[in-house]
Amino acid sequence: MSAGSVTAGPRADAYARLFHPASIVVVGASDDVRKPGGRVLANILRGGYAGTLWTVHPRAARVQGVTACPGIGDLPAAPDLAIIAVPAAAVAPALEALGRKGTAAAIVLSSGFGETGASGIVAERSLRAIAERAGMTLVGPNCSGILTPTYAGKFAGIIPALAAGSIDVVTSSGATVDYLLEQATPRGLRFDKVANLGNCAQTTVEDVVAMLDANHAIGSAGVLLLYMETLRDPQLLLQHARSLARKGCRIVAIKSGVSAAGERAAACHTGALATRDAAVQALFDKAGILRVASKAELIEVAAASIALRGAGRCRRVCIVTDAGGPGVLLTDVLARHGIEVPVLGSAARERLAGVLPAEASLVNPVDCLPSRDADAIARVLDILVEEERESIDAIVVVMGNSGLTPNAPIYEAIRRAVHRSPIPILAVLSSATTCAADLARYTAAGGIYFTDEVALGEALGRIASRPLPAAEPAPVGGYDRAAVAGALAQAHGVLEPDCASAVLRAAGIPVIAQSEVRAREDLAAACARIGYPLAIKAIGPVHKTEVGGVRVGIRDDAQAAAAWSAMTGGAGVRGVLVQALAHGPELILGAVREPGFGHLLMFGLGGIHTEVLADVRFALAPLGHDEALGLVRGIRGFALLEGYRGGEPVAPEVLAQHLCRLSRLVTDFPRIAAIDLNPMMGTGTDLHVVDARIVADATDP
Q1: Which of 364, 423, 464, 613 places its Cα 20 to 30 Å from the Cα of 358?
Q2: Which one has a higher pLDDT value, 267 or 40?
Q3: DSSP track, 49-114
Q4: Which run of H or of E encompasses 271?
Q5: pLDDT at 538 over 80
Q6: Are strands 250-255 and 289-291 parallel, antiparallel or unpaired?
Q7: Would you state the pLDDT for residue 265?
Q8: Residue 588, H or E segment
């Protein structure tokens, strides 16, 4: 599917037909619930589907009590949705018949396609072609199905109770769906729409994100979990994930299967460092997607997001425990993420002293001691809400099972406090074995809990530092598009130094004073124009220092002549570049075109150690000023730019402006394949490109 197919054309209602169909047919239905066709039908019936339901069976009149038709052509009307559970060889004929009938959407549960090898890939492509001809939305093949509050169209794994407005899950992995539901449901998490797309022959994760965005409204899920092994359409994901994030939906995602694009390494430093994974991360950052590495992290961050009830950045936490150790562990992990555990005010401490034993700690964490009971916990939480609601963003309650007082009343006191408190309260209830029945009652009543305070602290830290969707970039000053076009008009391949300088200056990026020399007799005049002392560099080699192609501090004509003689004898040297000397830290600004993503911008510490230190950050073009400033401030060595140990500082705002100009340059001229400005040097606001390498295609890609 393409971006336009989500909201226009024959699949304008794809969302409604997939997630809220008025009629469903199960093709390959069976009375045997050990078969996919039998299991999915049983789940639909058990889930209380209220629409029109048919089955297709060549011999039976009814299947599991549902009217059966001998063939698809015998259906009394075109169903909104078909769920296909027949052998692989029978899927294409079934799709053809459904297309003739006018079916709007189909979910193919059957396996035996792309996952089996070359012949399966061919068969899978034929399914897409059939669906495209019929104007049908196709999910699968080789998927476990879709769950929504409207119907339970999933044949494998757990089928939990669903709740509108909770958590949506979109994944290409059935195992991931089952893990999430199995692990998250017992902890009280509820799910709204769950879509396993299998092999994604037509409909991809990006397509479903676009559908969710186009249909987002009050009451839609506030959290979206994604698992992707392949990004088919990065720009589609960026557009709609960013839109959803701006609407208040928190998106948490795993992207697996990334690899480095090492073939670009010889062209430029930026290409060597800009892996496919860096492009994925840059896209997620721009879209406001919080990226995690494991399914367990998906659950923790989703649970924390729900428990925080859409609250903004959680920067101040009060901890309530019944033992000292968990409070210390949680305090430590929160501190690593820059989340404060502030000392409570005197009024709160005075009131807490009237509730808790004299041995209790009242400063924060509040240690209620193992002798705590439900009444004490309820009163502590009430006091904290009443006295500290302006000073804290959330309360974390960590309770074990001391055996001194029953836990069930404590859990109920916490659940009631969570329900009525204007401050989010998050419960870490660690006694999963001894209090299993109590915890089941807690979640059945609507409670959500965490099992480990450190895992919760990590989730809170990730949420606190999550990326916000990037704003649209504003126009940049000092940028002359027409002049850039003129400088690039006839240029392609590796641009000569004078051409590269002309492009950069037209884009508003300052280049150090320099002169290109192709003949020995022109050398002295060029040096005189620049003025001694100066630098001389070989024109041609990619890594000049490795072939002796850079000499700095040249003070007279004799040294300049010696440099000429030493450099021009080398292979591939086409002349020399005479440059003024530069001072200040060496920085790198770069861009590289990543297929499907656009251009990836890079900023970091430059010079000969760029790839060794790899102290760089990436972002996708086009780049807004805040994004650019985030790149500059985000490198590990940012202290060097602030004048570390007496060094002269560099203006971050000016660097950000140059990054924005570089972003505009590659956005306006996509045939630029790669740019290295390495190094850019200077101090304060006086910054210049010292060495530039620009690689351009002859035409736009």
Answers
A1: 423
A2: 40
A3: --SEEEEE-SS-SEETTEEEESSGGGSSS--SEEEE-S-HHHHHHHHHHHHHHT--EEEE---SSG
A4: helix 269-273
A5: yes
A6: parallel
A7: 42
A8: strand 587-594
Per-residue DSSP letter, 550? E
Cβ atoms of 221 and 165 closer than 8 Å: yes
Q: What is the DSSP letter of 115?
A: G
- pLDDT at residue 367 is higher than 60: yes
What separation, in Å, do the N-terminal and C-terminal C-alpha atoms of the chain show? 22
Write the DSSP symbol of residue 28. T
pTM: 0.91
Closest CA to 650 of 681, 679, 677, 684: 684
Q: How many CB atoms lie within 10 A of CB 701?
A: 9
Strand pairing report for 145-147 and 137-139: unpaired
Tokens standing for 406?
């029953």
Asked whether 534 and 559 are in contact (CB, 8 A), the reply is no
Please write the tens of the pLDDT for every residue from 133-182: 999 999 999 999 999 999 999 998 889 989 999 999 999 988 889 999 99
Residue 498, class by beta-carbon neighbours within 10 Å (0-12 exposed, 13-18 middle, 19+ buried)? middle
| Residue 122 dihedral angles phi and psi, to the nearest 5° | -60, -45
> Is the Cβ–Cβ distance between 226 and 205 less than 8 Å?
yes
Q: Parallel, antiparallel, or unpaired for β 394-399 and 425-429?
A: parallel
Q: Cα(605)–Cα(615) distance, rounded to whole angstroms?
A: 6
Directed axis angle between helix 88-101 and helix 118-134, to 10°? 10
Q: How far is CA 153 from CA 38, 42, 92, 643, in A?
A: 11, 9, 20, 61
The burial class, CB within 10 Å (0-12 / 13-18 / 19+), for 206 is buried
pLDDT above 90: residue 408: yes
Question: Count of alpha carbons within 13 Å of 355, Cβ hemisphere only?
Answer: 24
- pLDDT of residue 7 exceeding 50, the answer is no
Task: Report residue 82 as tokens.
Answer: 């078909």
Which pLDDT tens digit goes with each residue over 237-250? Answer: 999 999 999 999 99
Span 250-261, pLDDT tens digits: 999 999 876 544
For the beta carbon of residue 341, count every other beta carbon within 10 angstroms.
20
Q: How many residues does the chain have?
A: 701
183's CB contacts (< 8 A; 6+ apart) are 295, 296, 299
Specify the pLDDT at position 1.
Answer: 53
Which residues partner with 394 through β-bridges?
Answer: 317
C-alpha to C-alpha distance for 691 and 693, rounded to whole angstroms: 7
3-state helix/strand/coil string of 346-396:
HHHHHHHHCCCCCCCECCCCEECCCCCCHHHHHHHHHHHHHHHCCCCCEEE
Please provide the DSSP assignment of 390-438 as one string. Answer: TT-SEEEEEE---SSS-HHHHHHHHHHHHHH-SS-EEEEE--TTTTHHH
Within 10 angstroms of residue 131's Cβ, the number of other Cβ atoms is 26
Report residue 146: phi and psi, to 5°.
-130, 140
CA distance readout (Å), 408 to 49, 147, 303, 375: 35, 32, 21, 12
d(CA 119, CA 180): 32
| Cα–Cα dist 138/202, whole Å | 6
As given in the structure block, the two tokens for residue 151 are 């119907």
- Supply the DSSP symbol for 172: S
What is the structure's pLDDT at 263? Answer: 40
